[in-house]
Amino acid sequence: MILLFLILAGFLPRAGTAPALNYGPPPEASDYASGIPVITYHQITLHRSTYSATPARLRSDLQRLYDAGFFLILPMDIDDGLSRVPFDRRPIMITFDDGWEDNFRYVEEPDGEQLLDPDCALAIVNTFIEEHPDFGRGVVFFISWDKVPFGIHTEEKLNTVLDMGHCIGNHSADHLSFTKIPPSRYHEQVIPALVSFQHRLGLRVSDINVVAYPGGRIPSGADAESTLASMEFQGRPAVIQGYLVDGAVSSFKRIYEQEGFGEYRISRIDMALYSVPRLLAWSNIMVKSNARPSLHDDLPWRP
Questions:
Q1: For the chain, which terminal residue's Cβ has fewer other Cβ atoms within 10 angstroms, N or C?
Q2: What is the pLDDT of residues 237-283, one digit of tens each?
Q3: For 293, which DSSP code?
């Protein structure tokens, strides 16, 4: 009885809650309106939690982003200078963290046939891009191995995600925050995860070379970026890009001119804390002129 009183009075945390994250005001507009928003979701479910979104919310967000003129990109597109992005569209990357079963789930029909659950994240995205082919194709699933990725049938599902044209990223072996371990131990989280991928994907593991940091942070001034850049797996770079969750928007200039390996500090926006209408009000996402500058011009900071 005393414990219940303390919880209701706010002296003890309620089970299952997480502290609210406050990213502050949106970032200042850059000199060149070249924001590359990267948004992230976690669970897609009707069961409300701190980091969940409903299937209806995801469908609505996709429609709003499409109507606003966005085009889906993958990590490889950042390395390619966004060459696939049409002149009349803006780039956006959509990611899903952790590998929850509601990201990729099958449902069994009365006859025993296994079909893709229409309310899981993969089905919602696939349906939308099939209906809107000019939206681009592909999202990123960052997988952590502290749970069984996608619940069951992990090997089949990982290969299916790649077959469908989506991307798989590394979200670590144990989902341990990189701010709680020294950079000298990062390999303990990155490499075992790649080994787990290799056991299920074989040679396709070579496609997995981007990392989303658990907790969305890496320390500053601790050689974190250089450690990640020097890490190898089977003779190739283990990490070529690293993704934060900091409520900001990166640009090419920030990624490739920022001192200290800017490609290892690419910003992401947690959609449990923001809405699409709010993002569309940010000037470094939406160009205010009648037509945005061409992404294909020869810009001095383009890699």
A1: N
A2: 999 999 999 999 988 878 876 565 889 999 999 999 999 999 998 87
A3: P
Three-class DSSP category at 2 = helix
Whether this model's pTM surpasses 0.70: yes
> Cα separation of 44 and 111, whole Å?
27
193 near 211, Cβ under 8 Å?
A: no
For residue 250, the 8-state DSSP code is B
CATH architecture type of domain 33-279: Alpha-Beta Barrel (3.20)
Secondary structure tally for the chain: helices H, strands E = 9, 14
H helices present in the chain, as ranges? 2-9, 55-67, 75-79, 121-131, 154-163, 187-201, 224-230, 252-257, 276-279
Where exactly are the structural domains of the chain? 33-279
Amino acid at position 4, single letter: L
- Tell me how far apart the alpha carbons of residues 140 and 118 are, in angstroms, rounded to a whole number: 18
